[in-house]
Write a structure and sequence with these properties.
The chain is of the alpha/beta class. It has 13 helices and 16 strands. It has 2 domains: about 120 residues, Enolase-like, N-terminal domain (Enolase-like, domain 1, 2-Layer Sandwich), CATH 3.30.390.10; about 230 residues, TIM Barrel. About 40% of the residues lie in helices and about 25% in strands. The protein starts with a strand and ends with a strand.
């Protein structure tokens, strides 16, 4: 298969609900910038990729990602995208510092694989299941507002709720307790977003034992791995790494020291499906739990994350709700969302249509 044309398309998308988190506590995110990649082949096929990024997570800027995408687009025209491993390795030097750009071309090449095989990507990658439950994220907010946001997501059918936290451990505890009181049968997660000290992690996990399914990224990514391992060994709540999951090397370091109970894998921050599958292999060998996460991202990127989550027994649940609050998203998902479950359909490739 030969590529005839690659187009790089920057797009700005507004959010219907302002996004507050420990990274954006006072000035919320009201719109995101993403870059779509359209790949056309001489055989008449069109595939799509997407670069979504949050500078607070990976340090990538729009200009940096755009430059990397354009450089990779120029080089990709000489590649056979069905030789996926070779094609991605060839582009790696051009996208080395921009996992979002790496993810975009990784997605597009995997989309072409599925189109060429006339198979949905989740089946092509393993086809372990065709549906999986997802959490819904609750923005950082005062206790009363948090409960209302949680009730709203519950009315939409979600049964797993992830509360954003990390600014004030005592307030985080109050928010979790309030949501549990309001929705006692829901599973609750807390994302500390690197905001706690070791002592605060001990205190929070002790008082919230039995109320939390997991605590995500409680310590900064710069924390000592051995110290994190000691904390994990004594924690009454499972501790998951998120921002610390940067690629296979980082996961191997965490796994080798039993530093966490599980991992949150985001395609946008690890560089795409190829990297996510390597992380999955390490995590399964180390008996680490896996959830597949998302950032504020178009449905196209969520569809790729879903394909990965459905392909492997290593993934138990997902946090793939990053597309829900976007308006004017040009990508239209072909997967279904029913009562908090993401359900695949047998659409070849990644499984999205894009109207750009």
């Amino acid at each position: 298969m030969q590529i005839s044309h690659v187009e790089v398309l920057p797009v700005e998308l507004p959010l219907s609900l302002p996004y507050y988190s420990a990274y954006h506590p006072t000035t919320p995110v009201t719109r995101i910038e993403v870059i779509f990649i359209r790949v056309e082949t001489r055989q008449g096929r069109t595939a799509w990729g997407c670069a979504a990024f949050d500078p607070t997570l990976t340090g990538e800027s729009r200009d940096q990602v755009l430059r990397a995408c354009r450089a990779a687009a120029d080089r990709a025209r000489d590649l056979n995208p069905l030789n996926t491993a070779f094609a991605l390795a060839t582009l790696a030097p051009l996208t080395a510092d921009t996992p979002a750009a790496q993810c975009a071309f990784d997605m597009a090449f995997h989309d072409l694989l599925g189109l060429a095989a006339d198979l949905p990507l989740y089946r092509l990658l393993g086809g372990y299941r065709d549906r999986i439950q997802t959490a819904a994220t609750i923005n950082l907010a005062p206790v009363k507002e948090t409960v209302e946001l949680a009730r709203d997501r519950a009315r939409q059918g979600f049964r797993i709720l992830k509360l954003k936290g990390g600014r004030d451990p005592e307030e985080d505890v109050a928010r979790v307790r309030a949501v549990h009181t309001a929705l006692p049968h829901h599973l609750l997660r807390l994302d500390a977003e690197q905001g706690y000290t070791v002592r605060q992690v001990r205190d929070v996990t002790r008082v919230l034992a039995g109320l939390l399914e997991l605590l995500e990224q409680p310590l900064p990514v710069t924390a000592d791995v051995a110290e994190l391992a000691q904390l994990t060994a004594r924690s009454e709540v499972p501790l998951f790494a998120d921002e610390s999951v940067k690629g296979p090397d980082s996961v191997l370091a965490l796994a080798s020291q039993r530093a966490v109970h599980g991992l949150s894998i985001k395609l946008a921050t690890c560089g795409g499906l190829h990297c996510a599958r390597q992380i999955d292999a390490i995590a399964r060998a180390a008996h680490l739990a896996i959830t597949v996460g998302s950032i504020n991202e178009p449905a196209l990127l969520t569809a790729a994350g879903l394909a990965f989550a459905l392909s492997t027994p290593g993934v138990q649940t997902t946090d793939l709700d990053g597309y829900l609050d976007l308006t004017h998203d040009p990508s239209r998902p072909r997967f279904l969302l029913e009562e908090g479950w993401l359900i695949a359909t047998d659409v070849p490739g990644v499984g999205c249509t894009v109207e750009l």
